[in-house]
Amino acid sequence: MILKPFEMYELTLGLKALKKRLPSKHEKFQQINDDLNKQEAGDLAEKKVMDKLTSSQLPKNHVVLHNVSFISKVETQIDVLVISPSWCLIMEVKNWNGSLFFSDHPSQVVCQKDGIERVYTNPESQIEQYMFGLNSLFEAYRIKIPIYGLIVFPFNNAAIKKPPTKFPVKVGNEYLRYLWSLQINKNYADPLKLGEILISRHEQWNKFPLCDYYGIDKMHIVEGVECPQCGTIPMQRMTRTWYCTHCDRFSMKAHEKALKDYGMLISNTISMQETLRFLRLRNRYEAKRMIQANSIGRIGARKSTTYVLSDNNKKRQAPSIASNRPQMEASALNRE
């Protein structure tokens, strides 16, 4: 059962928006482009795994979650998590191309391709951190269940020259056979309820606003509403709609993406003057109506009022376990 399906990371959307709105001659443009390529490569690999898990027959009473993110003593962001009544499996998915050499001391992976050598963080150390975080979260709910780790290269473009020592690694679709090989010998918990707990604790960890993260002056960001058809910036405001002079298309809600871009790139709060400038509007009443429809509240009064953009533009702080003790009894989750 796919409990939390694949969804593109907000960071990917933010990097796309930043690349679109940053002049190509800007000194940080190449770095943004490189980071976006890496992020999209990771998304592609995780989507391939999730698509395969979705279309394949899985063992009975298993649930699958994509992108499980939370903080429980340590920051935890699991690519793919499979939960059975007897165990949890953390799948660390990679899209690396070349000959790979895993090393424990130091904990890194050396990738060689076409005479070029790159060094990556060893996914084994990532899995160990995520196992610790997942265990810590489960302890708060008095849940005890074995947790395993698996490194996955879903594309057949990686040659494992020196394999990892702590966790198994699977290439292509080998992970499906591995899932079926894991024993179901004791019911520790209800997989569906565990999955629901993780979804309720999910927090998307981003680097927003990206201008602050990359040290980019917000004045360098291209302002205006982007055409949803051809990508031209800016569109022109007409009566109750936006018009693109490049492709001759209209859109009534094109400003919604522009405000999302603002939240990801510049700030999760915006004033009336900033709205007028970023959307290139002249009518304050139109601007107020748009910002009120795309915000979750406001701060201040009158001319000093700023609006808080909707949640998908906002990096939230995870609630602590201590302040969010589970209300349900542990016996409802654990099964001997």
Characterize the structure shown.
The protein is an alpha/beta fold and 336 residues long. It contains nine helices and 16 strands. It has two domains: 2-201, no CATH class; 223-309, Arc Repressor Mutant, subunit A. It holds the Pfam family NERD. Residues 41-160 form the NERD domain. InterPro entries: NERD. This is NERD domain-containing protein. Residues 311-336 are annotated as: Disordered.
Topology:
Layout lengths: L1 E3 L5 H12 L7 H27 L7 E10 L1 E10 L4 E6 L4 E6 L4 E6 L2 E6 L1 H18 L6 E7 L4 E5 L6 E3 L2 H8 L9 H10 L9 H5 L21 E3 L2 E3 L6 E2 L2 H12 L3 E3 H8 L4 H10 L1 E5 L6 E4 L27
Parallel strand pairs: 1-2, 4-8, 5-9, 8-10
Antiparallel strand pairs: 2-3, 3-4, 5-6, 6-7, 11-12, 12-13, 14-16, 15-16
Quick overview:
The protein is α/β, with parallel strands linked by helices.
Structural class: alpha/beta
Residues in β-strands, percent: 15-25%
Which parts are unreliable, with pLDDT below 50 for 5 consecutive residues or more? 312-336
Roughly how many Å is the radius of gyration?
Answer: 23 Å
**Count, helices:** 9
Strand numbers in spatial order across the main sheet = 1-2-3-4-8-10
Distance between the termini: 23 Å
**Broad shape:** globular
Helix content: 25-40%
Q: Report the average pLDDT across residues.
A: 92
The total beta strand count reads: 16
**How many distinct domains?**
2
Succession of helices and strands: EHHEEEEEEHEEEHHHEEEHEHHEE
The major sheet is characterized as: 6 strands, mixed
